[in-house]
Amino acid sequence: MEKNWYVVHTYSGYENRVKQNLEKRVETMGMTDKIFRVIVPEREETELKDGKKKTYMRKVFPGYVLVELIMTDDSWYVVRNTPGVTGFIGSSGGGAKPTPLLPEEVEHLLNQMGMNEQNVEIDLSIDEAVEILEGPFAHFQGRIVTLDAENNTLTVSVDMFGRETNMELDFSQVRKI
């Protein structure tokens, strides 16, 4: 069975509490191999009030939580019976299993929240020559200084006007020369 993302309906304003409750239940009921991530879809917004900038997190879908899980009777039961959960979206009721989100929908939501899930497979090593593909330094060439596979980032040293300049880039922004 494969893991998919599902949308869970909660009482409005209880999204974070449901997330905490569900994460605790997953631990205590030994479901870490079936229920993986719980996300409250939020995005950062900045508001100008009284001449001051105020940054806050705004819920993208109030009353909803995203859950990544392998749908089994046990995982369905744990999520469905978490305090504050009213049900799964995409279920016809009567104990029917819900329909998962499409991969494109999940990717779009995670991108909106800055939680891009892409894992770019790339065979690069330190001190290797690369070309920058996008951004203000597109078509510049440089050498890799550091690699961070966990975050899919690398630091490239580029020669600009006779000085070495380091810049942090995503794996997808460079290609091997």
Automatic annotation (TrEMBL):
It comes from the Bacteria. Residues 2-113 form the NusG-like N-terminal domain. Keywords: Transcription, Transcription antitermination, Transcription regulation, Transcription termination. One of its GO terms (cellular component) is cytosol. The keyword Flavoprotein does not apply. The keyword Mitochondrion does not apply. HAMAP family: NusG. This is Transcription termination/antitermination protein NusG. It comes from Lysinibacillus alkalisoli. The lineage of its organism: Bacteria, Bacillati, Bacillota, Bacilli, Bacillales.
